[in-house]
Amino acid sequence: xxxxxxxxxxxxxxxxxxxxxxxxxxxxxxxxxxxxxxxxxxxxxxxxxxxxxxxxxxxxxxxxxxxxxxxxxxxxxxxxxxxxxxxxxxxxxxxxxxxxxxxxxxxxxxxxxxxxxxxxxxxxxxxxxxxxxxxxxxxxxxxxxxxxxxxxxxxxxxxxxxxxxxxxxxxxxxxxxxxxxxxxxxxxxxxxxxxxxxxxxxxxxxxxxxxxxxxxxxxxxxxxxxxxxxxxxxxxxxxxxxxxxxxxxxxxxxxxxxxxxxxxxxxxxxxxxxxxxxxxxxxxxxxxxxxxxxxxxxxxxxxxxxxxxxxxxxxxxxxxxxxxxxxxxxxxxxxxxxxxxxxxxxxxxxxxxxxxxxxxxxxxxxxxxxxxxxxxxxxxxxxxxxxxx
Amino acid sequence: xxxxxxxxxxxxxxxxxxxxxxxxxxxxxxxxxxxxxxxxxxxxxxxxxxxxxxxxxxxxxxxxxxxxxxxxxxxxxxxxxxxxxxxxxxxxxxxxxxxxxxxxxxxxxxxxxx
Lengths: 389, 114
Known about the structure:
The complex is a heterodimer.
Chain A: H1 3-23, H2 26-43, H3 51-69, H4 90-98, H5 105-116, H6 121-127, H7 132-148, H8 159-180, H9 191-207, H10 212-225, H11 251-260, H12 268-281, H13 290-304, H14 307-321, H15 323-330, H16 342-353, H17 357-370, H18 374-387
Helix pairs in contact in A: 1-2, 1-3, 1-4, 2-3, 4-5, 5-7, 5-8, 6-7, 8-9, 8-10, 9-10, 10-11, 10-12, 12-13, 13-14, 14-15, 15-16, 16-17, 17-18
Chain B: E1 2-10, H1 11-15, H2 19-38, E2 42-47, E3 55-59, E4 64-68, E5 76-85, H3 89-97, E6 103-108
Antiparallel strand pairs in B: 1-5, 1-6, 2-5, 3-4
């Protein structure tokens, strides 16, 4: 890695955050910083003693010259509303601004990856499987809205902080899940979005070290991601958790994630991370503490009221108490999850265990009619085939 | 920054409101305006006539088409607005949240220099 690449990776977000606070213009800050990195490519080596200071000075100079050359626009673009600067809060302000609820979710995701993650427009477009021009327009619109609507550049405080923090975590988790299980198409897992989300969560956890939900989200994503090499077999077919080769789990990542978990109020990510930790701690599938997992899902269902959580709880209860009890928890879920293939797929599996094979075949048929990705379809077909004489 | 709070509601409900309900609405908006003034945020605000009282002009080629009624026929109509001054969008949203109407659209006002 060249010195410029390394500086980009280490300092992009923080330098952009500082410049944005100074210039009160996200667009200008971003372009000037980009210029500074471009200048560094030809000016380095010799690498300056303090690369970020060199980059900041260069970017400030570029900003002044850009401002001088800018035609005087008839329409005044309002400057960013920047609160009294608090030392070290610039980067958090940047993150909270990119994830502001007045922006669409798509815009929040794109801006966060661009400004905080330092990703190029093309790279972000590829992550979300959209055209580069579409993504460029989305980012431009979002930046415009920040300045024109007066979205403030600050870290929220008081009772607002909790809700806004949840908003940031939702953006990061959305980036993560985008790669973890693609909804459609041939590739079931693309590891790049997940890795980006983990990097962003690491940054946030360092900035909010006392927030147990932030570290829980980081742990949750790392625990899932540690299993990436075991989720598909050599032919790209899905492998269930119990059948995964646990030797292919990244144990060092699991150990690090478990170390991040600390007691705190039972939040959304805290409980999900605790569930993932139970799975990851079992050396063999039969070591899994399904009773503990079923209890955690019950807590999660109380927190979220989500039908998908109920589905997962039913799976855990089936393991802990038997397939009949699990099946009972699935009763009536169709209304709440009409297009969800995992509901009939789960019911089929439980019916199979109960020896009710004809009903199981029927449920596999329903699941196959709803499933999106090729590997998942293949998995369901192979399951159904084992039931046929 | 200046923000417009655009208040939307159901015109049929307004037309069928009892005198008591109308008095209540006026009192609620009166209290809201006092709150805005107390925060130094109030610039102006008006209630608009019913959509049925609107006339819409559309400029075509060389002629002006005139139709009765509002620009868009919907269930929810623009029934009034406030113009407020707020530090940023967060403050504007906070002030809009206290507004006694079902639907409030927060729109930044474009300001031209010179």
